[in-house]
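thread: overnight batch results

M.L. [08:02]
morning all. the overnight job finished for the chain we discussed friday. pasting input first so we're all looking at the same thing
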Amino acid sequence: MPLPISCAIGAMDEEISLLKGLRDLENPENRKGILDNKTLPRWVSGLFVDGQPSSLVDSLIEQYEKGRNQVTGSGKELLTRLKAIDSDLGTYLERLIQTSWSELWMGDQIPETVEHSRRHSKRLMEIAGNFLRALDQGTDGVSHIYMDKAIPLALLISAIYLHDIGHTALVYPIDPDKAKDAGAFPLSLFPSAVREVHHLLSAEMIRYRTENIDESEASTRGLLFPKAYSVLGDSDNLDWKKLESQIKILRKLLPEVCAGHRNYVRLNENVEFKEKKAVWQVGKFLMGEDRFEKTLLPLDKKLEKNYGPFFNETGETMTPDMTLTVTALLRVIDGCDVQSDRVVGDDHLIQRLQRTAYEAKTLEAQLPMFEDVLKEYVVDADGTPMSIRRCLEEICSEAGKLTPEAAKDGTMDDIDTNKIKRIGSSLYPSIFKILRSVKGEKSFNSLFEPDNVKVIQALSLANRIAFKWEQFLHFYKHRSVEVVLPVPAKKDGAGNDGGVKISLLSGKNGHSKEELRSIAKDIVEEVHRARGTIDGIKSPRDYLGGITVDTDPDVLENES
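M.L. [08:03]
and the structure it wrote out:
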């Protein structure tokens, strides 16, 4: 029995356990005795007649549980589209989001970063919905990006919710059984590693939770795509064979889509090769040079090389071009989530930054114990040879001027934030280059042999201090934009469809022209690197004084 109780969920939170407990009491006399207590909330006691629960009790509890986990707001747009195309597949994914995918962020290894959990995924669902609505206004609609087909749309929705799951990886290798045999590298000791290769960790985490799992392991690993009947229940109205074949395709392709969501990953050979030293050093350290190099293969070549027989089976249902398009869409949509909601709210922002500052300063207090090691190792810090200890002194000196209030209000003009970025970008790859040297060809366990332990502890300390202070800068960036809104672009003089224009609406705390331009450039780069796979997307040059200025992305990117 559906009930309009969504507005009362907050109130029901206060006493829902009481209602459940009274309903579940086996002895009616015990229940009646409790109900006679005049201190019970009237709305609770009024639901029982002569000690027996009325018919409303079960309905209220059921609707409360659904309402607490429901996919609300604009995030429901993509699921509504999918259910209109394929009701069974859409309902299956909706149930997974409601019951498990929204809670996958337990154990996030880098909680000091801007928000990457349920709210991030729901914002991406909203942004993607706005993209598709904008494209609906054009002649081609969404057919040229395959969003009128069930599996490509389902793959995009799945990737939106699971592309950052690598943040929850505890050790490398991901599989604890493999880690026992090969040795385990504790990712929590080096948070920058999680951030730099979280896309690859996401792919491995998805495989770990989808492939080669027998029934005895299913409950402990946590299947990301359980059997359809276990999610939807037994029904004669579902085409189970079709649904299971669709789920099989999602399981197979999702790791590659998620691994491709970072902009240095090339979708095809037409995209310029872009190296990031920190990613390279971390990837080679964790995976080994040969295996990491294979992840750098352009995605179209990887699909051709590794998935030929698979795509022969799927036929027109799912093709390599569809997979590339979904990956490109994910990257552009993910790049658009620079909204202020990523810092949750002012109160959360202050508390998060206060906690991060406390953690960083606590770590700084441990530096004297590792003075000798940190002075021994010298890195090239933006062209200047500098010991790791000196790098940390420079970062901490500048970061000492940072306050949560300054990050919130945007009053960071007196702080050389670029120095923190520059030194950090030199420090991270240098740390992992040293780790590779210490490890050599041995297992990860060799890092923790007596002769190496102090070096590893010192490098971990340096990595964590730099990483924590750097997060202040990300919070500052994300507070600048209230909304990133994809809207239909104007038609040109010949009447051709304008595609999508991405508009930045500034945050309530104001913004600087420089900061907004930097954010816009990041979005432009994502769009450029997705070119050849997505057509008709434009980005803004700037957003100033309530006026969106449309400029060709090339002009913006080449501007000094």
